From TrEMBL:
Transmembrane helix in keyword set: no
Compartments where found: Cytoplasm
Alphabetical list of Pfam families matching this protein: Iso_dh (PF00180)
Annotated substrate binding sites: 96, 106, 134, 224
Cofactors demanded by this protein: Mg(2+); Mn(2+)
CC annotations in GO: cytosol
Major location category of this protein: cytoplasm
HAMAP family for this protein: LeuB_type1 (MF_01033)
Top-level taxonomic group: Bacteria
Residues annotated as domain Isopropylmalate dehydrogenase-like: 5-359
Protein name: 3-isopropylmalate dehydrogenase
Native source species: Roseicyclus elongatus DSM 19469
Catalytic activity: (2R,3S)-3-isopropylmalate + NAD(+) = 4-methyl-2-oxopentanoate + CO2 + NADH
């Protein structure tokens, strides 16, 4: 029998709330003969509270062994005063770095039922389907030197943007491979007009293209202009490849094209393991949403769609991923909305649990 191991790290704030809904989906697949070997552990503030560290070494070791990790969200005001080295976010960054999850796939798709809900005009977003590939293990998030020190009478804060050729080339390949399965276009975004690392980024992406993927249509854009184009006419894009920090910003922007940050899933993929599948962590793009945590208001769809990505990329269960995505679409078409998706007159929000239950019911009826 195939074993499918999954480590669940619910984390903080709304993380455990949205993850509880994913558990219902996993249990439902279990009833259909698709069993997952699920273990659960702590990350972020929850791990700090229990162990004094945002990621225990044992949890890190477990994450390296399983087929896939599914994470809710980390962080929150309770941890704001903590020393930087033990902040909840450090636990997530350690997972990404030590698992070497260099390609972060953040798809932004606008479901028909939500086209009216975006802050942009309906015809700008209807049918939108773009994929942002964010480099996740390097750049200014990890470059040295870094820190805060004293220079004479004043403090100086330092972070370093650093990219090697091989780091750029491997994430570029991920983007080109995805383009092959999609509309065949990649737009690479950097700021080669002001940053040397941007010049190298542009050159290496072009070289990988010319040598290995000449059939893909490649364009380059400065990231600030890219942000403008994403709001002006997002449907011009298919795959966008960009660095760690620009990717963080551009994917939050892209989230709002789809209606809500509560809708956007992500997959963070690394090199293939012995079984041929990539090392992988799946998580919603959103954070722990302290403003709504504990109120049953969170939209679980981003986390549920992240599990759909796990089915597709880690377990070779593309048909099941499609089925889950269709169930989400059907529930939205029925008019079900968590509070973040309201705005249409006369609609009453459903709770996090009600949304999860409705998706399971659609799966069962499909
Ligand atoms: P956030 O994504 O948590 O929240 C931004 C806004 O979006 C809030 O108004 C929130 O209520 C709303 N929102 C987010 N997810 C939602 C959902 N599923 N359903 C409904 N509404 C949702 O970002 P923030 O407020 O800037 O950050 C809060 C904390 O989360 C910080 O500690 C931050 O570092 C952390 N964070 C963690 C992750 C992660 O774990 N991957 C990602 C982003 C932020
Ligand atoms: C994200 C988050 C993280 C990031 C934080 C929580 C470390 O904003 O996943 O988008 O900046 O990468
Ligand atoms: Mn972010």
């Amino acid at each position: 029998m195939t074993t499918r191991s999954l480590l669940i790290l619910p984390g903080d704030g709304i993380g455990p709330e949205v993850m509880a809904e994913v558990r219902k989906i996993i249990d439902w697949f279990g009833t259909q003969g698709l069993a997952f070997e699920v273990s659960e552990d702590l990350v972020g503030g929850a791990a700090y509270d229990a162990h004094g560290t945002p990621l225990h070494d044992d949890t890190m070791a477990k994450a390296q062994e399983v087929d896939a990790v599914l994470l809710g969200a980390v962080g929150g005001p309770k941890y704001d005063a903590l020393d930087f080295s033990v902040k909840p976010e450090r636990g997530l960054l350690r997972l990404r770095k030590e698992m070497d999850l260099y390609a972060n796939l953040r798809p932004a798709q606008c479901f028909d039922a939500l086209a009216d809900f975006s802050s942009l005009k309906k015809d700008v977003v209807a049918g939108l389907d773009i994929m942002i590939v964010r480099e996740l293990t390097s750049g200014v998030y990890f470059g040295e030197p870094r820190g805060i020190h004293k220079e004479g009478n004043e403090r100086v804060g330092i972070n370093t943007q650093r990219y090697t050729e091989s780091e750029i080339a491997r994430v570029a390949r991920s983007a080109f491979e995805l383009a092959h399965k999609r509309a065949g276009k990649v737009c690479s975004m950097e700021k080669a007009n002001v940053m040397e690392s941007g010049i190298l980024w542009r050159d290496v992406v072009q070289e990988v293209h010319d040598a290995e993927y000449p059939d893909v249509e490649l364009s380059h854009m400065y990231a600030d202009a890219g942000a403008m184009q994403l709001t002006r006419w997002p449907k011009q894009f298919d795959v966008i490849v960009t660095d760690n920090l620009f990717g963080d910003l551009l994917s939050d922007l892209a989230a709002m094209l789809t209606g809500s940050l509560g809708m956007l899933p992500s997959a963070s993929l690394g090199a293939p393991m012995a079984n041929g599948r990539p090392k992988a962590l799946y998580e919603p793009v959103h954070g722990s949403a302290p403003d709504i945590a504990g109120q049953g208001k969170a939209n679980p769809i981003a986390c549920i769609l992240s599990f759909a990505m796990a089915l597709r990329y880690s377990f070779d269960l593309g048909a099941e991923a499609d089925k889950l995505e269709k169930a989400v679409e059907a529930v939205l078409a029925d008019g079900l909305r968590t509070a973040d998706l309201l705005g249409e007159e006369g609609t009453t929000p459903v709770s996090t649990a009600e949304m999860g239950d409705a998706i399971v019911a659609k799966l069962a009826a499909s």
